[in-house]
Hints:
By secondary structure, the protein is α/β, with parallel strands linked by helices. It has a single domain, classed as Rossmann fold (3-Layer(aba) Sandwich). Helices cover 45% and strands 10% of the residues.
Amino acid sequence: MKCRVCGKEANIRLSAYNTALCADDFLTFFERRVTRAVQKYHLIDQTDSTLVAVSGGKDSLSLWYILNRAGYLSDGIYIDLGIDEYSRVSFEKARLMADRLGRRIYRFSLPALFQKGIGDLSKVMRRAPCSLCGVLKRYLMNKACIDAGYTVLATGHNLDDEASALFGNLLYWKEAYLYKKSISLEGRGDYLAKKIKPFFLCSEREAAAYAILSRIDYVYEECPYSVGAKTLLYKELLNKIEVTSPATKIRFVKGYLERVKEQEARPDPERCARCGYPSYTETCNVCRLVERFGTGEAIRIECFEPAQATATPDISAKADAVV
Ligand SMILES: [Zn+2]
Ligand SMILES: [Zn+2]
């Protein structure tokens, strides 16, 4: 198996594109795909300032790294869910990357506000940890973005995440969610940041290969609460289809992107009467949660400056190497 670009021994086979690449050419290929998506779908404008949602996993750390290499200078936000060792190690990896990039990282700590991690909090609320985590993360990341003056929130959701979510929403005809998962969602004034997913068309396997080849130190374990999640089953099923019919996932998700464009503009979300952030009810979920279980402290987001500023090489010079 030879690299399609340079003819040397290939390191990775990419069946979805019917190609194989060596390590160097794969890195260029992957970075180029991401920067092209940013340009093609107008994810980040010149006037934007970007905050990356960083979990310590391969996707978010690779995304943070690539955006900075491509000149989209961005800082990170980490949500500490209070999952013991997993959260501690995850934040450590996030900080390592912050230092490598010479960028700032913000942290919000759930135990600091509730004296409980996501596990205990979900028990007292009788709610599944993943759905509670989703509500809190969406709120806190948006708040961090707005409060600290960023205009765009970037997340590391990849092709496999999107394909499996889409598959699940179709399977159960969850139409209310169906058209809310595009590659970018516009922001609203001073209370809702624009959300983007630059890895929308990049597979999990590609993101993992990129992280390893770029020597990105990330958490290998999945979140302990994700075990048994339906999305993992959908990912497995889609990967089985992909083996016999390469490029099915990317066609599925690209077809979705084309259809989502045809949807009407969404109405402005209502605002929570207390905090002013988006809410479907008069008082938002998080305000109610803080009222019931909070320690009385205000929601505080810490900011960590990088240990040292490391110059990150620019990728623009390399970007034209792939034919
Ligand atoms: Zn090559
Ligand atoms: Zn609120």
